[in-house]
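Working notes for the structural subgroup meeting. M.R. asked for a predicted model of this chain before we commit to crystallization trials. I am recording the input and output together here so anyone reviewing the notebook later can reproduce the run.

Input as submitted:
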Amino acid sequence: MKNRFPVTRTTHPKEKPQDENNLGFAKVFTDHMFVMDYDEGQGWHDGRVVPYEPLQIDPASCVLHYAQMMFEGMKAYRRPDGVLQIFRPDMNIKRMARTAERMCIPELPGDILIDGIEAVLREDADWMPKAPGTSMYIRPFIFADEVSFSALWANHYRFIILLAPTGAYYGSFTGKLSASRIYVQDKYIRAARGGTGFAKVGGNYGGAMRAARDAAEYHCKDVLWLDAAEHKYVEEIGTSNAFFRINDEVYTASLDSGTILPGITRDSVIRLLKSWNIPVHEGKLEFAKVLEAAKDGSLQEIFASGTAAVISPIGSLTFEGVDYQVADGEAGPLATKLYTNLYGMQTGTVEDTMGWTYPFDIVVK
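Returned structure, recorded in token form:
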């Protein structure tokens, strides 16, 4: 049985974006949001859809001082028949549970996540963009708003879902993947064993911004992170999981270390590659071997995977002031095939043979 939530409609609707071909990534938010509270002893309660508005939060709330929070990233897509659907929400539910446990945040039941998304999406369905390459970005997040300076887990939390009509993560949608230039970071680290690398928490991203600024100074889109212990093995690319195609085999970092975010797109990529009988190795890959492969021509492709961009091809690596081109510097055939299949499933233009899509009873003509 679905959860039913009360709705308070806005009395001041916003102007919707006029140019859907230049939405950018999550720059404009819809008229409503979903909100729910948690109190120790009462659990999650009072879910509701309300107008999107600034939050009232006490300046002594512990999230502002000790960063006890978590978030997820999802998208809703419009199929050719107008039905709205999301992609592999069961994986988001599992990842939220792992993050909540790591951050001492009470677990949110999966049905509340799905029903909350549906409730606010239904109210703001007329915000759903229709231009090619667009979608509705969904940002569920939980934060501790208890007033306390004690460095302990809180007893009160808020859960919120925001919606944002969005375009391509990197620039405008052209129907063709473009390759990015990536800076190899060997000074700062993203995550260490025993830390929060596997969890979806704000601190992981805030701590990465210094490295991202270094990358920008070299005119690079993002950062290739190396491992924290030895700065020897490749880990992630920016906020995405990294894949390397060498001699027709694909390599990606293992989740075993706890430093890698278990991406939903990452898992989808691995499962598709295996279904296509392409060898996939999850484990340690030395960056030195990547450079060697780039030099001898056996490095065929590098690409990143994530909810925001789906598949992001990498055209070159910048390391110690030297550029190393990946193959011909363009999007490779495997990255393109993966993008075509994943984005096609998500938007309903490619048959979902994996059972990954989750349609709602919401139609946008």
